[in-house]
Amino acid sequence: MAVVIGWCTRTWRCLEALCSKGSFTEQDPGIAVLWAVLTRRATRWAVGQLRRERVSVLGLARQAQGDWKTVWRAVNPVLEEADADPVRFAGMRHLGG
């Protein structure tokens, strides 16, 4: 189920003498953050699978034809953010069966 995304980025050159960069490439954080290995959409899908389908990170990596570390690096920050949110227990009277 691996998907290859073709993404054309524009590279800009700075012609100003005071420009320290010389060139830069545009980024679109709506698609994926800089250096992301999974898009935001793929990360949401992976977290949803972990929560609803109770699959393992290794199982997700196998489905995505990737490795465990790649999937974990994408989903771990999302899971940590959700874990730190106290609102997730709002309206709940007890946990478990």
How are the SSEs ordered, and which strands pair?
Blueprint: E1 11-13, E2 23-25, H1 40-53, H2 57-63, H3 68-83
Antiparallel strand pairs: 1-2
Helix pairs in contact: 1-3, 2-3
Helix-and-strand structural type: mainly alpha
Oligomer: single chain
Overall average residue pLDDT: 81
Sheet-strand content, in percent, reads 5-15%
Rounded to an integer in angstroms, the radius of gyration calculated over CA atoms is 19 Å
Helix run count: 3
Would you kindly provide a written description of the structure presented here, covering whatever features stand out?
This protein has a domain at 32-89. It has a two-stranded antiparallel sheet. The protein is built from three helices and two strands. With 97 residues, the chain is mainly α. The chain has helices at residues 40-53, 57-63, 68-83; strands spanning 11-13, 23-25.
